[in-house]
Every structure is written in structure tokens, then in C-alpha cells.
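Justification of resources, computational component.

The compute hours requested in this renewal are based largely on the per-chain cost of generating structure records like the one below. Each record pairs the submitted sequence with a full C-alpha cell output. That output is archived, and it is also reused by downstream analysis tasks.
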Amino acid sequence: MGNISLSVLITAVLAAVSVGGVAYVLIYPLLSGEKRGEERKKAYRRKENTSRAIRKASSSRVNEHDKRRKQVEGTLKRLEERNKGTERVDMALRLQQSGLNISPLMFYLFSFLFGAGIGFAAFIFGVPAYLAGAIAFVAGVGFPRWVLKFLKNRRERKFLNEFPNSIDVIVCGVKSGLPLNDCMAMIAAEAPAPVGPEFQELVDAQRMGVPLEQGLRRMYERVPLTEVSFLGIVLGIQSKAGGNLSEALGNLSNVLRDRKKMKAKIRAVSQEAKTGAIIIGSLPMIIVLIVNIITPDYMTILFTSTMGHVLLGISVFWMSLGVLVMRKMINFDF
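The structure output for this chain reads:
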């Protein structure tokens, strides 16, 4: 009897311990908060994994964007190098590129009259006939073409300053659902010169039935910039093969702004060298002028004798050569 009672007691104790252990395992985590802690840890891990995946995807998009921008930059560089070897253009096109609305005949007539007037004035003031003829040739042939080049470069700088903003207008218009022709018409109406008139020429040509690719080629002839050529390539490829036009033009706009910043940095860094070259190049002429004013007899022999003319010619030649060398040293291609 005693043994039976002891066995029952041990069995009951073991059953109670088992039930308590099971209850402890099942109920204690709920009461102590361990389960909630584990859930929070799992949720935190899921959130961290999601954040890591988002960061990875964002980094991948940034890398892809940088890759595309580098491709655009490389293409622009190749186009620029290719366009350096283009053939010489005629005078009518050079006048268009400089923004002058005159005919080549008027330009040649003005150049002749200007050169003849300068040469005659030099001869009246006592300059020898052959030297006056050289002055007339430089004034009639070199100076007007230098003016054309100056006006052409100034017009191209103005175009590049506004061109990225015009591309952004096209990007925003395409994203909002406007047709490409309406975006170009908006640029033609709102953009300042020379961008507005150039796009107006393009819009008018399209209204007359000229294809977009041919119209952009004509724009490139009037504004011979690599950026304009690349715009024509992008629009030509998109019209034939399709694709995300807004993304391609957005990359082009970013590249143009980066190139503009780089050119400004190069100009700032090289400005000191340019100032020094200007001072060195103009110093001999300033000294000659000052000496001629203070003591005119000291340098009269250079202008009245044959040997003096030869020495002046040699001096002008070497000074011109030195100026060209300094110009080559301080001009950086980009």
C-alpha cells in the first residue's frame, strides 16, 4: 500500500513537472516579452534587409546614370575631335555663323574700303608706300575676318549658355506629354537669341516639310558646335529606333553643364598666364610709344632709314612669333 502510494506520488510529481515545463515553455515567452522581442528583431532584420536592398538599387541606378553620362561625354569628345577636321566654309555661311545679316559682296566691299582707307591714312602720315600697302592688306583682309571670328565665338558662347536650359524645356515637355514640335516651338518663342531664332528656323523648316534630321543638320551648319550635332544624333536615333527621349536629353543637359563648369575652371586657372602674356606682348610697343613721345629724335632713324625698316620688320616678326608661342602655351583644349 505504501509502495503504491509512493508510486502514485512520484507519478503525480513527474506529471506536474512535465505540465509545468510545457506551460513554462509555451506561456513564459508570452508573459516575459521574449516573443515580442524576437518579433521585433525579425521585423528589424526585415527592415534592414529592405533598406539594404533599396540602397543597393539606388546605388545601381546612380552607377548606371554615371555610366550613361560618361558615354555621353565620350561621344561628345569624339564628335568634337571629328569636327575639327571639317572643310572650310564659304563666306556666306561664315556670315550666318557670326550673326551678320549682310551679303558676301557687302562684306568684301566694306573690307576693301576699310583697308584702302587705313592704308591711305598711313601713307598720308608719312609711312613708306610698301609699309602702307602692308598695313592696308592687314586692315582689309585680316581685321574683318578677325571681327567675324570674334562675333562667331561670342555667338557660340551665348548659344551654349542657354542651350542646356532649352534642352530642359524639351525634357519637361516630353515628360508632361507634349509633342516634340510643340516643345521646340515653345523654345523658339521664349528663349533669347541666338537659341530662339535658331529653333524658330528649325520649326519653320518643319512646317514647310523639311525632315527634323535635315533641319538639325542645317542648324549645325549655322552653329557648328558639337553639342548641336549630338542633339541631332539623339533625336535622329530616337525617331528611328525609339527609346526614352527625356532620359537621353536629360543626360545631355547634365553633360553640357559639367562641360561649362570645367571650361570656367580652366579659364580661371589660365587667367594669370594670359594676363602675363598680354603684358609681355604689349610691353615693347608701349616702350616704343613712350620713347617716341619723350625723345622723338631717338627713334627717328628706325622710321626713316632702310636699315631701320629692316630692323622693325625683324622685330615685328619675332614679336609676332613670340605672341603666337605664348598663345599656344596658354590655350587649353577641352
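The mean pLDDT is 79. Residues 88-243 form one domain.
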